[in-house]
């Protein structure tokens, strides 16, 4: 079970279906929030620079640095990572894994180069709307089919996929189980589920998908509809 911290204007927030005008602020201190999730038993933290996702230029680098210094568990970071230089900066900061989203669709050669240079450290974030890949903070929907695109990313050598169904994200309506299972079955690399996880039952349903690597949730933890410790215990039972 992987808790998410979404950064916007230096604060810990959640957006509704990725719309930057539908924002809820949960904390002014992302590093303290990271510490809280680590204390609750998280073994990996998912961090997204929303300003970076929308603009292509990371605006929360200092907050990411503070999060890295605040906790000992691994962190993965996405949002606004559009070139190898930025990947190098984050990895030198101590980030364990980086997530490429928009750049994966726009510059597949960069994906392969970065995957070769940093083996095991580069993931692709695939955000889908009606089965099509969405980019630039979900503002732009491409013609790429999500599964076909994921296969290309796998061929390029990335270490895993984080798959989000945009229509479910932040809605607390439950994940798209059919789409998630189809993605997992299509690939041999790890797939992490994201989007729509709102209660313990959602986690249990996702864990029925054979070979699903992990589950990310954010809003459910902040809104109190799910307890992180309980969710972690369920995933441990599966192990």
Whole-number total of structural domains = 1
Helix and strand run: EEEHEHHEHEHHEEEHEHEHEHH
- Name the shape in a single word: globular
Tell me, what is the CATH class?
A: Alpha Beta
Let me know the largest β-sheet. Answer: 8 strands, parallel, barrel
The CATH superfamily label reads: Aldolase class I
> How many β-strand stretches?
12
Helix content: 40-55%
Which residues form runs of ≥5 with pLDDT under 50?
none
Main sheet: which strands, in order across? Answer: 1-4-5-6-7-10-11-12
**First-to-last CA distance:** 12 Å
By CATH, the topology is: TIM Barrel
Judging by the overall fold, what is the CATH architecture? Answer: Alpha-Beta Barrel
Strand content: 25-35%
Number of helices: 11
Task: Summarize the helices and strands and which ones pair or pack.
Elements: E1 2-8, E2 11-16, E3 19-27, H1 30-39, E4 45-49, H2 50-55, H3 61-70, E5 75-78, H4 84-93, E6 97-100, H5 102-106, H6 108-117, E7 122-129, E8 132-135, E9 140-145, H7 146-156, E10 160-165, H8 177-186, E11 191-194, H9 200-207, E12 214-217, H10 219-223, H11 228-238
Parallel strand pairs: 1-4, 1-12, 4-5, 5-6, 6-7, 7-10, 10-11, 11-12
Antiparallel strand pairs: 1-2, 2-3, 7-8, 8-9
């Amino acid at each position: 079970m992987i808790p998410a911290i979404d950064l916007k204007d230096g604060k810990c927030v959640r957006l509704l279906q990725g719309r930057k005008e539908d924002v809820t602020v949960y904390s002014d201190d992302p590093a303290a929030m990271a510490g809280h999730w680590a204390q609750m038993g998280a073994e990996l933290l998912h961090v997204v620079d929303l300003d970076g996702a929308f603009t292509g230029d990371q605006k929360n680098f200092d907050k990411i640095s503070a999060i890295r210094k605040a906790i000992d568990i691994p962190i993965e970071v996405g949002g606004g990572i559009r070139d190898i230089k930025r990947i190098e900066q984050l990895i030198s900061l101590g980030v364990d894994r980086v997530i490429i989203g928009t750049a994966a669709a726009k510059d597949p050669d960069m994906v392969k180069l970065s995957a070769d240079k940093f083996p095991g450290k580069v993931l692709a974030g695939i955000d889908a709307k009606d089965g099509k890949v969405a980019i630039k903070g979900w503002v732009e929907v491409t013609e790429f089919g999500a599964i076909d695109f994921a296969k290309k990313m796998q061929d390029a050598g990335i270490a895993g996929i984080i798959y989000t169904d945009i229509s479910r994200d932040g809605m607390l309506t439950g994940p798209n189980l059919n789409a998630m299972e189809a993605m997992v079955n299509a690939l041999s690399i790890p797939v992490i589920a994201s989007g729509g996880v709102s209660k313990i039952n959602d986690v249990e349903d996702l864990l029925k998908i054979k070979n699903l690597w992990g589950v990310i949730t954010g809003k459910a933890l902040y809104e109190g509809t799910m307890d992180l410790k309980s969710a972690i215990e369920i995933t441990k039972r599966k192990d």
